[in-house]
Design brief:
The protein is an alpha+beta fold. It contains three helices and twelve strands; from the N terminus they run H-E-E-E-E-E-E-E-E-E-E-E-E-H-H. A five-stranded antiparallel β-sheet has the order 6-7-4-10-11, with no helix packed on it. Strands 1-3-8-5 form a four-stranded antiparallel β-sheet, with no helix packed on it. A hairpin with a 4-residue loop joins strand 10 and strand 11. It is globular and about 50 Å long.
Length: 236
């Protein structure tokens, strides 16, 4: 086999491996447990947030999801939406610092929600909806540590928090950003499951997909250039 043909085969193999690596990285990056929408106005009332749990195993199903809600900045009036096939167990905790509201002083809040009985099969995801009466207005974000248990006994701990400026950790906890109602233009009373929010979430996912595709196209372009150079040398 000529050197030119060998070089062409190596260039093609390198391109395929690079493209596969990029696509795999993009898939892994989007497979974390996430919260939707990813932001709300501080102090927002009567809304819904969904926790999206993807199954990343090739053979095992997700059979248990444990969601831990912050109690230092508690969500008030939490209600769990019924989910086919799943049973939700809600745990309340007495607050170290009671919260004063127009309806009185709140001394306890939901600290944990555990879903069992159902399953998320490999390659699929489930959205677990949680309604709230009011979000806190004294913090910039809320972190929801989550444990995901598989049918083979494996437990993935989505609990890692990245310091400001650091790269995203391997198993990041879902984070809900809380923004100024004035700055974001978001009304204080704004349910999560609105067409606008759904469209924005879809646009964000599309943008990430296009970004990954752009990287792959770039790699293919470089390989095509190398192919042309090697081929021209072989002709000479």
């Amino acid at each position: 086999m000529s050197r030119a043909h060998t070089a062409l085969r190596r260039a093609g193999l390198g391109t395929a491996l690079a493209a596969a690596a990029l696509l795999t990285a993009a898939g892994v990056a989007s497979a974390h447990v996430t919260v939707h929408p990813d932001s709300y106005a501080k102090g927002a009332t009567d809304g819904v947030i969904a926790f999206r749990v993807p199954d990343e195993s090739d053979t095992a199903s997700t059979t248990k999801v444990q969601l831990f809600l912050p109690t230092d900045h508690p969500l008030l009036g939490v209600l769990v939406s019924p989910h086919d096939g799943w049973t939700a167990t809600v745990t309340n905790t007495k607050l170290k610092t009671p919260v004063k509201t127009d309806d009185g002083t709140i001394t306890d809040a939901v600290s944990e929600i555990t879903w069992t009985g159902g399953k998320v099969v490999p390659g699929h995801y489930e959205d677990f909806d949680v309604a709230f009466g009011q979000l806190p207005d004294d913090t910039a974000e809320l972190t929801f540590k989550t444990l995901q248990t598989y049918s083979d006994g494996k437990v993935v701990r989505w609990i890692e928090e990245a310091a400001k400026g650091d790269e995203e950790p391997e198993n990041p906890a879902p984070v809900l950003k809380l923004t100024s109602a004035t700055a974001s233009g978001t009304a204080t009373r704004s349910p999560a499951a609105t067409p606008a929010t759904t469209k924005a979430s879809a646009s964000d996912s599309t943008a990430r997909g296009l970004g990954a595709a752009g990287l792959v196209v770039g790699v293919l372009g470089l390989a095509a250039g190398a192919f042309a150079v090697v081929r021209s040398r072989a002709v000479k």
